[in-house]
Write a structure and sequence with these properties.
Aspartate Aminotransferase, domain 1; 7-stranded mixed β-sheet; globular; 15% strand; 381 residues; single chain; 43% helix; Aspartate Aminotransferase, domain 2; alpha/beta; 13 helices
Length: 381
């Protein structure tokens, strides 16, 4: 072979490095300020015991096939029933990941002639789902409810006759701010459309009983929710909640559901236990909320920054190299903080994405914030 097939990829990798966007895998080191393990359930003794019990009960490690073939296990069905009761949804479907769930919902449910209006900062998986689907797509300014309705009205004025879809995250993963859900559901109702809410960073942490910010909206015919299980829930997979008709449509038409091996039944058993912990141990959530309030106050006091009010605290520094340098210095000092760079975030908004979990305590939070303030002050001087 005379052609070096690696070369074109090596060129692109060098270009990424020149832009400060090259990424490498690295192990976790130091105090956790980067994971989404908000309630520390990944290391919960109850979770471990539940998995041992499931194995003792004969729950298989793998599904062995698609849910539509032999891969539909009693653990999947039990989880979906329990999750529907927990989140007050008519029905829930368990997917292998939040990415697969977003891909399935947004490529399948909106139909040709419909309009999807999405927040500019929606997750990459939602973008992939919308690109795969057949509906028209419009992006609007972040958290601008008026812009959402303006986009729908403009579409109607141009002759749009389908159904409008509003797609948002209840908490945005890179900024930590909340969507104006009460305004958005009014817009959806007024325009006879759907509201799709990605609760990935609210599930287990916020809302009544950790049921998310969409609690109270779930169960409505025009509301679809996504609760991922790899963050506060501490395991993996994702649950889509909707009415039975929409869930049946996903089972019959969603390619990421039909043509994929089902999630591990053992994994489903772990999610069942996590939901039980959310109900049985509210003190986890209460303790976390105390840490979140403390961290936000520390940001204000030592960094002069207004916190997001949630467990996701961005420190936007602008340039890729600066974000990477600050993250490396913090990690060298024992604080596992990571830099987030474009295209994950908009151009010139590279940042440190700091998360607050039960894996740290108040003294550790204070020490991290004080060290970050010192590093920023040193840069300025």
């Amino acid at each position: 072979m005379t052609v070096d097939l690696r070369q074109r990829y090596e060129v692109k990798l060098r270009q990424l490095a020149q832009k400060g966007r090259h990424r490498d895998l690295s192990r976790d080191t130091g105090s956790d300020f980067t994971s989404n393990d908000y309630l520390a359930l990944t290391s919960s003794p109850r979770m471990r015991a539940a998995l041992v019990d499931a194995l003792d009960r004969g729950v298989p490690v793998g599904a062995g096939g698609s849910r539509l073939l032999r891969g539909n296990h009693a653990e999947h069905e039990a989880l979906e029933q329990e999750a529907a009761a927990f989140f007050a949804c008519e029905q829930m479907l368990y997917f292998v990941s939040g990415y697969a769930a977003n891909l399935a919902v947004l490529s399948t449910l909106p139909q040709r002639g419909d309009l999807i209006v999405h927040d500019a900062l929606i997750h990459a998986s939602a973008h992939d789902g919308m690109r795969t689907g057949r509906a028209d797509v419009v992006s609007v300014a972040h958290n601008d409810a008026d812009a959402v309705e303006d986009a729908i009205l403009a579409w109607r004025k141009r002759g749009g006759t389908g159904v409008p879809w509003i797609v948002v995250e209840s908490i945005y993963s890179m900024d930590g701010d909340r969507a104006p859900l009460s305004d958005l559901i009014e817009i959806a109702d007024r325009n006879e459309g759907f509201l799709y809410i990605d609760e990935a960073h609210a599930s287990g942490v916020h809302g009544v009983g950790g049921r998310g910010y969409a609690a109270g909206l779930e169960g409505r015919d025009n509301v679809i929710v996504l609760h991922t299980c790899g963050k506060a829930v501490g395991t993996a997979g994702a649950l889509v909640g909707a009415n039975r008709t929409l869930c049946s449509f996903l089972i019959n038409r969603a390619r990421p559901f039909i043509y994929a091996t089902a999630p591990s039944p053992l994994q489903a058993a772990s999610v069942r236990e996590a939901l039980a912990i959310l109900a049985d141990e509210p003190e986890r959530r209460q303790t976390l909320h105390g840490l979140i309030a403390f961290a936000n106050a520390q940001f204000s006091e030592h960094l002069g920054m207004r916190g997001s009010g949630t467990q996701i605290l961005p420190v936007i520094v602008g340039e890729n190299a600066r974000a990477t340098h600050l993250a490396e210095r913090l990690r060298a000092d024992g604080f596992d903080v990571r830099a987030i760079r474009p295209p994950t975030v908009p151009h010139r908004t590279a940042r440190l994405r700091i998360t607050i979990t039960l894996n740290v305590d108040r003294p550790t939070i204070a020490n991290m914030v004080e060290r970050l303030a010192e590093l920023i002050a040193t840069e300025i001087s």
